[in-house]
User: Which sequence fits this backbone?
C-alpha cells in the first residue's frame, strides 16, 4: 500500500501531474509515516472510544487540569492514574462529569461509550490492603473495554477462600494476581489455572519485605509456568497488559 | 456435570442399585476431582500432541533418562530444557529418535505430530549472546505448537536493525524481547508495537550488571505499557507464557 | 467421623428419610469441610476463649471498628495489633471495655476468661528500644493463654545482666529473643539454653543497620543451634509461634 | 543443690575435714559450674544416646577423622553434616560401622540405641531438588530420636499433591517446609496446619533467585502465622529446632 | 616559569640582593604553589566571568546568604544549586538582582557578562518529570558559558519523538541524556550519535526503581559505546562535565 | 586479690568468725564479681570524672530527664548524644547547669573537673555537612578527657587544604576521619599519617550514595593500612574508640 | 544534501532518465539513510583507518576467527577486546600479522596506518592490579588514533607518587582514572585537574568490595566535579569515550 | 631540620660554594621532601627491623619473586600475605631462609632481629574456620614486633569458653576479634573489655551470610562501644592497625 503511494507519486511526477517541489516535500515526511510512528502516536484514538491515559503522579494540579482539557477537546475518553483528591476536585470544577475512584486513585472522564468484551479478566488479591492496586488494574481494564471479575482477599493463609472461587477464575481469559507480603498468590493461582497470569507485587508488608521486593522476587521465581510480572504496585501496567491479551 | 454424577449416585443408592459402602468409597474421592486437581495434572496430555516438560538442571543423567522413559511410554511428546550434551547422549542411547539443540540446551522427543498455529510469536534479541535463551523460548513455543519468527541481534546500539524488521514484529500476536546488558530492547519494542511484550532479561553482561539484575530492573521499570517480565534467563517461561497468549 | 456423616447421609437417602436434592446440596459443600478448611477458619473459636486477631496496620479506623463489632457479637476475645491510639479511642466509644497497651500498640477486648498455661515463655530484649516489639510478642502470647516472663534490656554489651536472669530463662519452655542493632542476643541466648529460641530482629539502629537487616542476617546466621527467625519487628508472629510451641 | 554443695564444703572447712587450700581450689572452679556452662558443654551426653555433631564443611579430611575418633572413644553417637564422600571413606577405614547418606551428605556412627519419639515431625519439600536439604533435616531429627514423615515434591505448582497428604501433615507435632524458587510452600502449609512450621529456604533456583534470597524473603514475609525461618539450606538447623519442639 | 622564579631568587641571594632569611621564608611557601594548588583554588576566577558554585542542599538559609555575600564582593558570577525558594528570597533581600529558576532550584547572580560558546550541548530527557534535573544541567552549562539546546520528553516509549529531533542532537558537541524509569534513553541516543553522551539517571519511578537504581544500572550497562554516567539526579555534575568537554 | 578474699572467708569460717549461712550468702554472689562483671558495670565511675553516657535517640523526653536525674545524684559527669533541643530544655528546667551543643546534638552536665590528655586526637571532615557527626566525635572525646584538634572541610576535591594541615595531623596520636559522599578522605589521610585512623562514613550525599553506603564501602576497602571503620554517622563510637586509644 | 539527492531523483524520473520501478526501489531504502542509520553503521570505515571492534567475550573461537575474516576483507583495522590467548592463536593461524596484548587481552590487526592525535589522553591507575583494565583503555584509545600517556600505580595510599606526575596529568586533554579497592583515585585526580575525568572502577578487591561495587559507588559519589563513570572493568568504554573527547 | 637544609643551601649559594644551577636542581626536588612524602615511603625501613609488605594476591609468581629480591637486597624484613604455596616454593629456591605459614598464607623472610613489645595483642576467633584470617592478623602483628596471644574457637555458641580466657583478654592492650557466621564475638568481647577492639568479619558461613556481609553488618552495628571494623577477611589490616595501637 505504502509502496503503492510512492509509486503513484512517482508516476504523477513523471506525468507532470505533480511538481517536483511538492513531491519532494511529501517524500521528506515519508520516513516517519512509513515507519508507522504516527500510528503509534494516534492509534488509540483511531479505534473508537479508546481512552487516553495520564500518569498524574509527579505532575502539578495545574498540569493535570491542562492535559485533561486538551484531551477533552479531542473528544477522547480519559483515564488518570495515581490522581490525588485535590487533582480530582480541580478537574471537576472545569469538567463536572469527571468521576473519581478514591481507593484506586483513578480519575475517569468518559465521553464515548465503551464497548465491553465478552471474555473477562479476573483480578484477584491476597489481602484487603492490596485492593487499591487491584482497583487500579481493574478500572484500567474496564475503561479499555474489558469485563472484569474482582476476587479479593483470597490469599494463601486461608487457601479455601481461593478454592471457592476457582470456577470463576478458570473461566477467565487472563488472570491478574495482586499480592504483597510474600506474594505466594501468583504461584498458587498459576498452578491452578491454564491461562496467562500477570503477577503484580505490592509494597504491602514491613521489615524484610523491603518495599515489595519480597513479593517481586517471589513472583519472578514462581515455580508455576505461565506467569509474568510487572513492577511493584503497577496496577495500571497489569490492567493494560491484560487488556491487550483479552482483546486478542 | 459433576453435580449430575453425584445426583445419579444418590439415585442409585436410593434405588438400591448401589450399596452404601461403594457409594461412600466413591464419594471419598470426590473432593479432588470436584476441585479439578486431576485436570491440572493431566490436562496437557488430554489435548493431542501436547508435550510434557522436564527441567533437567539439577537432575542426574540417570534421573533424566528415567523420566524420559516414563513419558515416552505414555506416548507423550517430550521437551527437556537445560539439558547437557551428556544427558542427550544418554537419552539417545535408549531413544535414538531424540533430538538436541545444543545452543538452547533443549532435548525434544516428538512422537505425535504438532499442530502449528497460524498466528505467530516473534522472539527478538538484543545481541548474539542472548540467542541461547531466545532459542529456549522459541523452541518451547514451537514444541507447544506455535509458529515462531526469530529476529536476533537487533539491540538499541544500532536501532536501525530493529526498524528494518518492524513489519514482521508488528504482525506478531505476541512478542518475546530477550536482552542482557541494560535490557533497553524491551522498552523500545514495547513502544513500537501494540501487542503484549514478554521481556526476558538475560545474565549477559559484566560488572554492574550483577548477573542480569540491571536488565531485570530496566525491564520492570519500562516506560512502555504492555510489557511483563519473567525471571532472568527464563526462556522456557517466556515461551510457555507466549504460547498461552498466542493460543487464546 | 466425617466418613460417618456421609455414610449416615447415604443411609438416609436409601431409607427415603432425605430427599436426593437435599442430599446433593449437602454433598456439594462437603469438599471444603472434608479438606478441613472450615477447621482452619473456625478452629480458634472452637477452643474456648481463643482470640480472633486483627492486624490493624493499613486499615482505616472505621474498618477496625467494624471488624471488632463483628467479632464482638460472635462472643470472641479480640486482639488488635499495630493499632493506633485513634483506633483505640474509636473502638472504645462503642465497646468501653476495650483495653489498650500504648507501647505494644495492642487493643484487647476480652469477653471470655483465658486459661493460663503452667509452663511459661520468656520474652527477652537486648535494649529498652526493643520493648514495644517485645510487648507485642508478650501480649499476643498472654492473650493466647500463655504465662510470660519478661526479661528486658539484657543485651550483650553488658552480658552480666543476662547471666543474672539465666535461671528464669532456662526454666522456660520456649524463649523469644528480641534485639535490634547487631542482634547478638539471639546467638548468646541460643548458646546458653536448651530450648527453642525464636529470634525477632527489630528495626532499632541506624546507618548500616538498614532498617533491621543487620539484626536479621545476624540471627539467620546464628552459630547457635535451635534458633529460628521471624520477620523484622514481627512481635505478633513470634508470640503466636511461641504459643503454639508452649501449648504442645 | 548447688547451694547445698557449697554449704557442705563450708561445713567441712569449719569442721576441719577439708583444708582451706583445697576448698579454695574447688571454689575457684565454681563460677562456671554455677552458671551451668558445663551443663551446656556436656548436657548432650548426659542424656543417653544423644549424638555429637560435626559440621564437616571447611574441615580437612584428617580433622574430621580425628574428631570422629575422639567422639567415638567417648562412646557417643556421631552425626557429621556436609560430609564429602572422601571424608566418609577416610572415616570408614578406621570405623567400618560408619554409614553415609550421600544425598544428605551425612555421616552417622551410632554406638548406642536411639529412643524414637511417638509424636512425629513432617519434612515436606516443594520440589525434588530440595530433597538433599530435606534429608539433612530429616536425618538430623532421626538421629536425635524423632520419628519423621517425609512428604517430598508437593510444591504449589501442583497443589493437589499437597492436599492428598494433608492428613499426615496435620497429625504432625511440628512441620519442616523446605522449598527453593519462590518458597511459597511454607505459606501454604502454614495456612493449612495448626502446628509450628519451620521454614527452610533452599538455594535452588536461578536468576533473580539470588542464591535463595527470594525464598528466604518470601518465607520471612509469610502471611501465615506460626512460621519461623532458618538460614538458606540449613537443614541441620531445622532438624535440630524441630527435634527440640517435638521433644517438649 | 616557576623554575625561573626560583633561579632568580637564587641569583638574588648570590648577589646579596636578598637576605637568606627572606629567601628561606619564600621557599617554604613554594611547595603548594609549585604543585599548583593555588591554581586549583582560584583558577575559575582567573578566567573572566567564570562562576563560583554553591551546593545549597544541607546548608542553612543564613549560610547561603553569607557565602553569596563573600562571592558577590569578589565580583564573581554565582551559581547556587538545590536552592529552596526560602533561600532565594533571603538572598534577594540583600541582592535584588539575584534570579531563581524554581524548577531547577537554581539561584544565579551574574555580575559579569558570560561568553557563550559557538558549539552547543544538547540536554535531552525521557519524560517531563526529568525536566528539573535537566534544567539543573542546562542552566549549569549556560552559566559556564555554553550554548544549550533542550530536547525534552523524547523517551523511548514513543521513539519517533526522538527521531524528529535527530538532526539537532547530531550536531551537538556533547549530549546529556537525562532519564528515570528504565533509563533506556541513554542507550538509544548513544547508538544514534557519534558524540560523547553523559547519562544522568533520575530518581523518577517507583517500586523496583529503588530511587533511581534501575536507571543507574541500565546506563552503566549501556550497550552503546561513548557513554559515561554521573550520580542519580546529578544535573550539576553532568552540566559541569559537558561544559568541560564543550570548551575543549 | 579475689582469691585472697575467698581464702580469708574460708579461714574465718574455719575459725568460727563467720557463720556458715553468712559465708554461703557471700559466696552465692561471688560468680559475677569473680568474672568481673561488676567491674564492667562501674568501672567508669571508679576513675574520677568519667562521664556516663545516654543515647537519647528513641527515648522520650521524660525518660531522658529521669536518667539524667539518677546519674546526677550519683555525682557523675553526663554525656547525652543525639539529644533534641526539646530534651535539652526539659533537662535544663531541672538542672540549669546543663549545656547543649545544638550542632552535635549533645547534652553535657559536668559536675567534676575533667583531666585533659597531653596527646591529642585530630577530628577531620571532608565537607562542612559532615561537621555535626565530627562534633559528636570531638565532644565525646573531650568529655572523656582528651585534647582534640578539629580540622574541618579538608576533603579531597581540594586536597591542598588537607596538606596545609598535615603537620597538625601527623602529630596526633590518633585521627578520626569523617566523610560522606565517596569517603575518600579516610584513604588519603591513612596514606599520609603513621597513626591509627578511625574512619566515620556519614550519610551526607544523595542518589547512589544510598544513605552512606558509598562512603562505608569506600572506607572498608581503603587501600591505606591502619584504618578501621565505625557505623555510618557513628560519631560517638569514633570518639569513644579514639579516646581508648589516646589514653593507652 | 540528502534532499538534493531526492530532488535529482525526482527530476530524473520526470525527465524519463530513471524508470519509476528503479526510483521506487531506491526510495524504499531512503528512510534509513534519511534517518542517518547508515551513517551510524558505516561511519567508522568512512573515516580512513578507523578500526572495527569485536567484543570477544562470550563468542566461540570460531566466531571470532570468522568475524575477523569478514572485517579483514573489508580492509578495516581490527580491535578485539577480551580475547583469550586461544582466540589469538586461532586468528594468527589465518592472519599471521595479528598482534596480541596478553595483559589487556586485546587482539589488533592493523592494515591501515593510524593517524595519531597531538593532544593526549592520560590513563592512570591506583594499583598494579588495575593495569589490565587500564591497558584495555589505553590500547583502545591508541588504535582509535590517540596519543596516550600511561601513569600506573599512583594510588592514594602513597599520594606523592601521583603528585610527581601532576604536570603530565594536567597537560592531558582528558584523563582516565582506573582504580579498584575504594576507588579514591578518581576523586583525587578530579580535584587536581581541570579536564574531564573518566572514572573506571575495577573489580580488584575482596570482601566488602562486592566485585567492584565499592569503587563504583565511590566514583559515582565523587565530590570532585568533572567526573563521569563507566561500568566496572569497562576499559574499552573509557578508551572509546576518551577518544571521542580527545578528537573533538 | 629540613628548613636548616634549605638555609645551608642558600648560604652555600651566597658564598659561591654551590652553583645556582645545582641549587636549582636540588630545590626542584624539595617540595616532596618538604611535604614529608619521602618519610611515608621509607619510614618503615628507617625504624630498625621493620618489614616491607607484599600483598601477593593477583600477582604472578615471577612478580612476587622479583619484589622479594629487591626488598632482600635492601636488607629489609619481608612479609608476604595471601601467598600461595607455589609462590613460597619459587621464592625458596632463591632465598632458602624464607618461611611459610600455610594456614595464614604468609611468607616471611627475616634478615634483622625483631624487637618484641612488652604489652600484647589478643587475637580471638569465634570458630576454627576463622583461624586462617586470625593467623594472618597474628603473624602480621608479630612480624611488626608485637607480642600476640591467640585465643581461638571461643564463639558465643559456647560462651563459657570465652569466659575462661577473660583474664588474658582483659590484660591485652588491644584485642582483635575475628568471626564469621553472625559475628557476635566482637560485641560480646567489646562488652567485656575496656580496650580497643578491632573486629574482623570473615566470609565463613553460607546462605544468608552473603560472603561475610552478615558478620560485617553485625560488627558495624555492635551495641558495644570501643569497636571498629576492617574489611571482610582483612586479617592483615587488623594486625597492622593493632600494631599501630600497641606501639603507641
Assistant:
Amino acid at each position: 500500500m505504502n509502496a503503492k503511494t510512492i509509486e503513484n507519486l512517482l508516476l504523477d511526477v513523471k506525468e507532470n501531474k505533480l511538481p517536483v517541489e511538492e513531491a519532494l516535500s511529501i517524500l521528506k515526511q515519508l520516513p516517519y509515516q512509513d515507519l508507522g510512528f504516527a500510528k503509534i502516536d494516534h492509534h488509540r484514538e483511531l479505534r473508537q472510544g479508546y481512552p487516553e491515559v495520564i500518569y498524574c503522579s509527579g505532575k502539578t494540579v495545574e498540569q493535570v487540569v491542562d492535559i485533561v482539557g486538551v484531551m477533552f477537546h479531542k473528544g477522547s475518553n480519559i483515564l488518570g492514574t495515581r490522581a490525588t483528591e485535590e487533582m480530582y476536585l480541580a478537574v471537576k470544577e472545569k469538567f463536572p462529569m469527571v468521576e473519581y475512584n478514591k481507593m484506586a486513585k483513578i480519575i475517569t472522564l468518559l465521553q464515548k461509550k465503551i464497548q465491553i468484551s465478552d471474555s473477562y479478566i479476573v483480578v484477584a488479591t491476597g489481602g484487603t490492603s492490596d485492593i487499591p492496586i487491584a482497583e487500579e488494574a481493574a478500572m484500567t481494564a474496564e475503561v479499555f473495554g474489558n469485563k472484569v471479575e474482582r476476587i479479593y482477599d483470597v490469599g494463601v493463609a486461608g487457601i479455601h477462600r481461593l478454592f471457592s472461587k476457582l470456577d470463576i477464575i478458570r473461566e477467565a481469559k487472563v488472570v491478574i494476581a495482586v499480592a504483597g507480603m510474600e506474594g505466594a498468590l501468583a504461584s498458587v493461582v498459576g498452578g491452578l489455572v491454564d491461562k496467562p497470569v500477570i503477577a503484580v507485587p505490592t509494597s504491602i508488608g514491613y521489615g524484610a519485605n523491603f518495599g515489595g521486593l519480597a513479593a517481586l522476587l517471589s513472583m519472578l521465581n514462581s515455580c508455576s509456568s505461565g506467569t509474568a510480572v510487572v513492577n511493584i504496585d503497577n496496577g495500571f501496567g497489569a490492567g493494560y497488559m491484560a487488556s491487550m491479551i483479552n482483546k486478542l
Remarks:
- Chain H touches chain C at residues 126-127, 155-159, 181-184, 187-188, 190-192, 205, 207-210, 213-215, 217-225 (CB under 8 Å).
- Chain H is about 45% helix and 15% strand.
- Strands of chain H lie at 51-55, 77-81, 99-101, 106-109, 120-125, 147-151, 174-179, 197-201, 227-229.
